[in-house]
Amino acid sequence: MRQKRLPPLRTIIIASVALAWLIVSRPGPDAERGVYIPHPDSQQVAGQLTVQFADNIPEDRWDDILAAHGAELERPMLVEGFAVVSVPDDRRSEIGEALAASGVVRTVEAITYRYPAAIPNDELWIDQWNLRLISADNAWDTTQGEGVVVAVIDTGVAYENFGNFKQAPDLAGTTIVDPYDFYNDDGNANDDNGHGTHIAGTIAQTTNNSYGLAGIAYKTSIMPVKVCGPVPGDPRRSQCSTTAIADGIRWAAEHGAKVINMSLSDPDNVTVAESEALEFALSTGAVLIAAAGNGGADEEGDGGPVLGYPAAVPIVIAVSASGFFGSLAYYSNYGVGVANTNVDVIAPGGNPPSGNGSIPNEGPTSVITQESYRFFCDPVWPVEFQTFAFCPFAGTSMAAAHVSGVAALIRSAYPNLNGTQVRALIQCSAADVGDPGIDLKTGHGLVQADAAVRDTDGDHIPDCIDNTPFTPTPSPTPSPTPIPPPNDCLVTPTPTPSPTPTPTATPTPPTSPTATATDTPVPTATPTGNVTGTPSPTATVTFSPTPLPISCGDVNCSGTVDTHDALGIIRFLVFAEPVADCISKGYVNCDGVLDPADALVILRYAGGLPLGLPAGCPGPG
Fold first, then answer.
1. Beta bridge partners of 346
2. ω before 310 within 30° of 0 (cis)?
3. Cβ neighbours of residue 502 closer than 8 Å, sequence gap 6 or more
4. Closest Cα partner for 327 from 10, 621, 8?
5. Contact present, 281 and 288 (Cβ < 8 Å)
6. Measured between alpha carbons, how far is 20 from 27 in angstroms, rounded to an integer?
7. First-to-final CA distance of the chain
8. What is d(CA 364, CA 484) in angstroms, rounded to the nearest whole number?
9. Tens digit of pLDDT for each residue in 279-319?
10. What is the pLDDT of residues 311-349, one digit of tens each?
11. 264, 229 Cβ separation under 8 angstroms
């Protein structure tokens, strides 16, 4: 890079300086006024501007032109014709406008900062596949949910130290506003179940505190509205009266909640009081979000094609649940609500094994983890409200919380949008999964936080609903450089092209193991057959993209796409070519078998999970 030029020698006489200034600064008869671009909405570099000189102005005249307008050359840029210049910060706009009007400058532009995608320092962030699946971390470059209140209509929240209740450690930095308990009719909406605390954590868990987990809209304020209490004789279960729900919705709307999360469901119709409360909340601009229901929890593996209530109400955003791939979880309700309204979107809810292990699923790690009471996730722990754990759960309740977090990000970034516009934005920014287009199981698709808040042209209208969107100049897309996971036992030699061998026999697909919810996952069989080389612990490998050669991504030949296939899917799509016996090589935890734990780690380093599956696939099983 060239060094900054020295100022003119002191021996140059004043007359010469004046003559030079006249020559370089006086615009010609055909000179056009340049443009000053201040970028007022961005974080700016103090005391500097970028100047683009006209094509006919040689570099040896830049110093004098700048000096004549109160600026100083810092350095020419590698981009031809451009320079970084220093100016007094309090005169930046004045000098910028003067240079633009000089007739020898094409553009003068403020220098602004860009920032890398946010990565929280929460110790369990690496396990939050669900937040990365919806691109929450990319959305944080735009907003973290500031200035928005989300009401959690639920079992309460562990937000304070009060009586027998203790505050959840990972909610210590979360702002709490206007709590109320409609079950006990008092102002302390403490959680006596654990469900509401789990939901609140997904929406706005304290983040970047070097502890626990992250929340989607972690600078959002939570309004705990307790409408549920323990079932008599069974303190681990909770029930919610429709009158408490109606009053809770009204309370939330009257106290400024702009997003109302209802992670509760029932197949019976909405009551008149609930309907009135929902209509009132909508009139205040609140966005209403509810869980589709867990009809498949009956162990039959079919969530049911009818939405539960209040999700089935047309003015409510209905959310079904997905696992790793953005495909419908076995337990999730979906389909049609009142007045033929469909499920709106699908969001991460997890897709773990069922109680008897007979229903297709994605394995025990396909869960949503958040902090709650230990007894909530540990059936042998006594029911008490002082001990916390990071609880893995699955359900449409968890899925609804993801959409509420995204709605909070939207409301923060675009406070002038009304509730209908926010709903449209959530729908149009979703990634299409499942059957092409809007369908009964996944609605408009998998909710996407970053796409929902993105504003490419800076006109304060999100791209998805912008009638005059920014159209960038097409440019070649560089090929990504895949990064293999940092584990010695995973290193694979660079594949050497060779003729495809003719098989001598048709291999017999291995039988998928049966698991229960409490079993340790049974690993797949150790792959056998000839490979193209022996792994070297010190090898450095660069892989090339290769088409997926196995129908529907069924890598282990089990007849369904499951978590055991996840590693193979990613490796076939991104890294390398298949090896013998229909199982891809790579053992992250070095136990000699390819298992779900291996797959998840691989996927994290490979950049995330693919959205959806190839057309005609039965879905994860």
1. 320, 446
2. yes
3. none
4. 621
5. yes
6. 13
7. 57
8. 24
9. 999 999 999 999 999 987 665 666 778 888 999 999 999 99
10. 999 999 999 999 987 889 999 998 877 666 689 999 999
11. no
